[in-house]
Amino acid sequence: MASTEDQKDWRFKLHEVIYESNTRAGKAFDVGLLIAIFTSIIVVMLDSVQSIHGRYGHIFKYIEWVYTILFTIEYTLRLISIKKPWKYVFSPLGIIDLIALIPSYLSIFFIGAQSLLVFRALRLLRVFRIFKLSRFLTEINFLTVALKGSLRKISIFLLTVLSLTVILGSVMYLVERRENGFSNIPESIYWAIVTITTVGYGDISPVTPTGKFVASIVMLIGYAIIAVPTGILTHDLAIAARQKKELPESCPTCGREGHDGDASFCKFCGSALL
User: Which backbone phi and psi does 8 adopt, to 5 degrees?
Assistant: First the structure.
């Protein structure tokens, strides 16, 4: 019985250090992890410079494998310290952590796979949790909810814009009489997309008076439609902002965050929160 309690106590302490940022040990662990991630990314970037690689490539290789072993141990400890490891494996942060490990082991079999190690930069998102910038995470959550709520409306909007660019591109193809870069309909549609999005590369431009008139209409339409997706997102963000604040703690079972301020149970796996 005592051994079981000691094991639970050991896993609880490990969970606090690895997953929680509201303790001194947890913050120190996460800050050290961020420094390791940041320096490993710098090593990968420097190794991609041919002149530096020629001189220090063998050193970078050893350093990279040291980081890979450390990150592998860290990932294993994350799985050990929670009750349902597979919940963490398939969570967003768990997938990012796994993606950060795979390139090193792939480089054994595939030359050049180590360049994918820059994916470790995604793990720097942990800085929001470490330094108590929870309001930024909350805003990201609001944006996610708003995008899900407005996905159908934005899809219809994009379909409308696509149809509009096809029509306007075809009109310009006819107006410019296959000259001045409008040699075919796809090229004309490309011009319409560039113009209606207000990018304006200038590689294709109308010359005839009628073409310039149509182009002016397209430019004005481009400015007008910018407000449409903004209004859609603003409305859905206002709805998402009415949700309650989130707890900074993570679930001891699945390791996920983002629980409501008054939550007693994890909304992802149903386990009791500490």
Answer: -65, -40
